[in-house]
What we know:
By secondary structure, the protein is α+β, with helices and mostly antiparallel strands. The protein has a single domain (18-262), classed as Alpha-Beta Complex (Creatine Amidinohydrolase), CATH 3.90.230.10. It has four helices and 19 strands. It has a three-stranded antiparallel β-sheet, covered by helices on one side. Strands 4-6-9 form a three-stranded antiparallel β-sheet. It is globular and about 50 Å long. The protein binds 2-amino-4-trifluoromethylsulfanyl-butyric acid and cobalt (II) ion (2 copies). Residues 123, 186, 217, 219, 250 line the site of one cobalt (II) ion.
Amino acid sequence: xxxxxxxxxxxxxxxxNGIIKLHGPEGFAGxxxxxxxxxxxxxxxxxxxxxxxxxxxxxxxxxxxxxxxGGFPATLGYRGYTKSSCISINHVVCHGIPGDKALKDGDxxxxxxxxxxxxxxxxxxRMYLVGDVPLRARKLVDVTYECLMxxxxxxxxxxxxxxIANAIQRHAEGKRYSVVRDFCGHxxxxxxxxxxxxxxxxxxxxxxxxxxxxxxxxxPMINLGRADVKVLDDGWTAVTRDRSLSAxxxxxxxxxxxxxxxxxxxxxxxxxxxx
Length: 275
Ligand code: MF3
Ligand code: CO
Ligand code: CO
């Protein structure tokens, strides 16, 4: 049975415990600010994602912008992770670690940022196209964005998490792509990875019911080939087992009385490439 709890501003921060938090107006206000910062960082990165730039250089921009805004990168020091972003190129599904690797013409890249601002986590990622990207990779990126948007259309009170999942899965599989099962979206707020787990494939009407004031991410990872992933020896980098291309977009959202509010929408209209 799914349990929900209403949280108030002066409540102690309750770690992930299986209970779904229902946030107050202060939670929505905090997520609006943190989400906007995440979106502004992703906006600012767009002109820098070009052939030759290293993923460390991009991470440095994320780091500096986060601190300049009075925030802190949630990933820095998280379970031993030492960077301010995750940067996942081509067949890397997620959690790519920024480093000396330079982007090259034709790459598709996901950049995932999570600034903490006044205690609230704004978690968002977008795909970027590096130079001239082949049509088949661009199509994967487009469809992955459509998957996220179709999922968000289902994010409304009375629906279930399975309705979001099913909308994503149907669209992806209808295009003969596959949905990654090993990583999920998650509750978010004052806790980075909170309950519930937000799956990206499933049956309509299954899973927890969506209630106003829930806050969570939707972040489908879609593969051009098979769904199977493996994590490299660095303990983080997740890649497709068949080395096929993978794409992902992520928004942080709050359930409202009639639908959802997207906290991480781009103020500049740069939600999907080309930018
Ligand atoms: N931002 C990622 C997410 O969407 C989490 C990254 S955790 C890290 O949930 F440690 F890999 F950075
Ligand atoms: Co997330
Ligand atoms: Co993220």
